[in-house]
Amino acid sequence: MLIGLRQVFLRFQACNLDCRYCDTGRNTYSALCAIEGTPGRRNFVQFKNPISIDRIIAIIDKWQKGWPGIHHSISLTGGEPLLNHEILLAWLPVLKSHLPVYLETNGTLHATLASLIGYIDHICMDIKLPSTSGHPEMWEPHREFLKIAVQKDVSIKIVIGDTTEDWEIIRSSELISSISSTIPLILQPLTLEGGKIGISPVRLLELHELATGYLRQVRIIPQTHKFLGLL
């Protein structure tokens, strides 16, 4: 929903899921962290993990002074950021005092979200479809998560492909509308090797039409960062 706005990305390691299309991996760990020296210039420097909040805040302060106003928010991404519950409890009050906090999440760890919701401004949660993620159905965890997330500015993202079935979109849309039909839904076409889209244009629009029968805002947004080369 914030497409086109620049953010400070804090990428956390590891995830409690292992989706087929993931570009990070469930058990991806690194002893090093890459930190950009100048925002947007790709001049990354390696530091040892774990990174301290003092170093992160020092970088954000420098960027806000040198390039005021270029960043809309701080994006917590991963992996699954909510796996780092204790760290976020300590970090979020400090981060929120500098920029709004945007959480990208797989939408399954509702108990953790409940303990942190007061420090979060925007949430983009996934609904994982069996057809694309390779995971069993997770409707109830997603429902419980959305009940909490709706306290904030929340949107839903669903990755879809040629194997996605009508019932999956209907079930997802019914779940969302049972909380609120005004929650925006983003249908994100699966990105294959070489940047090819993993769903036909006709099928993409058919699934969009299904969702609009339940929800007021349904958008088709591909992974634009891949087309722009901002990886």
Give the secondary structure arrangement, pairings included.
Blueprint: E1 7-11, E2 32-36, E3 44-48, H1 53-66, E4 73-77, H2 85-96, E5 101-105, H3 110-116, E6 122-126, H4 130-133, H5 139-149, E7 153-160, H6 166-179, E8 185-189, H7 201-212, E9 218-220, H8 224-228
Parallel strand pairs: 1-4, 4-5, 5-6, 6-7, 7-8, 8-9
Antiparallel strand pairs: 2-3
Structure, explained:
A seven-stranded parallel beta sheet has the order 1-4-5-6-7-8-9. With 231 residues, it is an alpha/beta fold. It contains eight helices and nine strands. Helix 3 runs parallel beside helix 5 (139-149), helix 5 packs parallel to helix 6 (166-179) and helix 6 (166-179) runs parallel beside helix 7. The chain is globular, with a radius of gyration of 18 Å.
Largest sheet: 7 strands, parallel
Q: What does the radius of gyration come to? A: 18 Å
Strand content: 15-25%
How far the N terminus sits from the C terminus, by CA atoms, comes to: 19 Å
Quick overview of this protein structure:
The protein is α/β, with parallel strands linked by helices and 231 residues long.
Keywords:
single chain; 231 residues; alpha/beta; seven-stranded parallel sheet; two-stranded antiparallel ribbon; 9 strands; 34% helix; globular
